[in-house]
């Protein structure tokens, strides 16, 4: 089926279309149709659109995303630590999306899976044969009273690597810090890059040690009952925290920030009704996250948690066989990282193609995810694991220890790999290298 667009010339005269035009009675509203619709132009959406735009041909893929910029979010920790600049972390959306796909710079406001059609904010409709949902996850800074006020005030010491709006503030906070508490928080919700809240704590501790600032106390306050999900790397991280004198407090949840007094209020999750206040000079917050509303409020598509209900092996929607999902918007029970998206891409490619050809889906996602746990200026533990939190390491050495090579991999190799290969549909995670490095003997 061709993509078509009716009355397109009335609204966007510069967009050249090759498909056929259909007349419609609803003037000034476009009706599109396509073989594959991709909702979201982030890591998953852009990469899968790239694969299919070249496979299916010009304008057979439509991609919908309202953003001007595409960020490589995995770089935000490095920006917070002063090791990268914000302008290295993004490209213009029009430069990363595949040229053969039609980009609608718009937001999907409603999905009707029974009609295989979506509606956008501008009032356009897009009918699809197949759809990949890649809408990501949202940040909920508003949920914590006082947090936005603190983030917006340049002298407050409150920062967050999680948003391009605030990530550039972090390094200034680290540089100015010379005494008192530096508190790093992890919220009581699913988050993207579950390692990021503690990476910046270790980087800050390293900065203090290198600059002889002995009067700073670094605290990592997490709502989780563990330091890290995968036990192998949890063991390593407890050692890192001890070595770097980072005090780890488990089961504590940030519930309020008082920027005027430089106080943070926490709730204990292990002792009901207990709250406590800690003073800070620096407060780095990982905000609570929430599923994207367009999925969460759609009861046909989401489960009770608000995420897109897909099969954890095939990535196909549990009710609608022409819908697939990738990345942070899904119910996949693995850590939400760019590396996980890379691992899902190959499975999605194979299963979506099988579905399009009316064949049985044979590829299974094992939950592969990776978290390059940067532990300072020059060291990194390259965690890689599956659904069962068992290590799935690429390299033929123990990745549970801090290494300079892995730091350089994270800092210099990954961004290249991401922009030049993954977003062009040419990287499906390191699985193939893992097999070669382990000579086919293991995993
Ligand atoms: C990866 O595949 C990936 O995608 C480009 C990343 O960027 C988000 C990563 O940070 C990592 C670690 C991987 C996994 C790759 C290797 C070689 C361990």
UniProtKB/TrEMBL annotation:
It is found in: Mitochondrion. The keyword S-adenosyl-L-methionine does not apply. It comes from the Eukaryota. Its cofactor is FAD. Its EC number is 1.8.5.8. It holds the Pfam family Pyr_redox_2. Keywords: FAD, Flavoprotein, Mitochondrion, Oxidoreductase, Quinone, Transit peptide. GO terms for biological process: sulfide oxidation, using sulfide:quinone oxidoreductase. It catalyses: a quinone + hydrogen sulfide + glutathione + H(+) = S-sulfanylglutathione + a quinol; ubiquinone-10 + hydrogen sulfide + glutathione + H(+) = S-sulfanylglutathione + ubiquinol-10; ubiquinone-10 + hydrogen sulfide + sulfite + 2 H(+) = ubiquinol-10 + thiosulfate. It is an enzyme of class 1 (oxidoreductase). InterPro entries: FAD/NAD-bd_sf, FAD/NAD-binding_dom, Sulphide_quinone_reductase. GO terms for molecular function: FAD binding; glutathione-dependent sulfide quinone oxidoreductase activity; quinone binding; sulfide:quinone oxidoreductase activity. Residues 35-336 form the FAD/NAD(P)-binding domain. GO terms for cellular component: mitochondrion. Belongs to the SQRD family. Catalyzes the oxidation of hydrogen sulfide with the help of a quinone, such as ubiquinone-10, giving rise to thiosulfate and ultimately to sulfane (molecular sulfur) atoms. Requires an additional electron acceptor; can use sulfite, sulfide or cyanide (in vitro). It is believed the in vivo electron acceptor is glutathione. This is Sulfide:quinone oxidoreductase, mitochondrial.
